[in-house]
Amino acid sequence: MAQENLISDIKSIRLGDVSINYDDIGKGEVPIIFIHGFPFDKTSWDPQIKFFKEDHRIITYDIRGFGKSTAGKKKFEISLFADDLIVLMDSLNIQKAIVCGLSMGGYIVLNAVTRFPERFSAIILSDTQCIADSIEGKKKRYDTIEKIKSEGIYEFANGFISAVFCEKSKAIKKELVESVRTVILSTSKETIIQTLTALAERSETCSMLGNISVPALVICGKEDKVTPVIQSQSLANNINGSRLKTVEDAGHLSNLENSDEFNSAIFDFISKL
Asked: Any bridge partners for residue 71, and if so which?
């Protein structure tokens, strides 16, 4: 999604039945791991790599089935994606990390931090929420699955693009919008269907927020219509000691739409850890 190729040494690692494509860049005592949202890939974090790589160890990876990672044969579930995160950390000899997840990446972080709290130095939850899908929300996802099965993913990609970007981004950041569209269209129909099912069937994590004891930052685009600011405020209100940072001129992809403000928020947060 970035305009330049930031990565020259592409790495992959075998985790059980899947091959995970990842980047491991820079040096630092506590790594920062970034987990992308649906239906994107690790290139969505290129602005963060560029900003943080000089002074921190940065790890980004393609969730199974996305980007250049293989899908494997297991049923997609948020808990499986969280297990992959921990196994990846084990394989890279990372005992603890600061982990940032956007949208579905945030679901993965919340699932993992409640099950493996000792593996986290801090968490960053971006444009995400703790609630499960409502009955209406599940129906909408399953209706989308049926439409994708019969018509493919082109119209799905167009609708997704319309929803995730704020109006300003759609008007003046057309190259960014098109790069995101390209990533969506490069994702297999099977991966999108499996992941939509996993999202529809995910459990709520709101009831476990009070158990989170590591430092937490919540970030949300001020114009996010997919996971509105009210959901981020709920996260911040219920995680002890956490705070909410809203990002101007940004919708659901706040890390891309206003990367300067997004990066500054993370920099300020980790500087005080």
From this structure: none
Paired sense of beta strands 97-102 and 58-61, if any: unpaired
> How many residues appear in the chain?
273
Reported confidence tier of residue 228, pLDDT bands at 50, 70, 90: very high
Output the DSSP codes for 44-71: GGHHHHHHHTTTS-EEEEPPTTSTTS--
Residues linked to residue 220 through DSSP beta bridges, in sequence order: 246
d(CA 270, CA 155) in angstroms, rounded, equals: 39
For 271, other C-beta atoms within 10 Å of its C-beta total: 7
Enumerate long-range contacts of 139-148, CB under 8 Å, 24 or more apart. 141/196, 141/197, 141/199, 141/200, 142/196, 142/197, 142/200, 144/196, 145/193, 145/196, 145/197, 148/189, 148/192, 148/193, 148/196
Higher pLDDT among residues 2 and 73, named by residue:
73
Q: Cα–Cα distance between 267 and 253 in angstroms, integer?
A: 18
DSSP, collapsed to helix, strand or coil, labels residue 126 as strand
Specify whether the backbone of 185 is left (phi greater than 0), alpha (psi in -120 to 50) or beta.
alpha
SS3 state at 171: helix
Nearest to 43 by CA among 186, 218, 224: 186
Query: H helices of the chain, where?
Result: 46-52, 78-91, 104-115, 135-151, 154-164, 167-172, 174-185, 189-201, 229-238, 254-257, 259-271
Taking the model in full, what pTM does it have? 0.95
Name the DSSP class of 251: S
The first and second tokens of residue 94, run together, are 């990372």
Taking the chain, what is the end-to-end CA distance rounded to the nearest angstrom?
Answer: 30
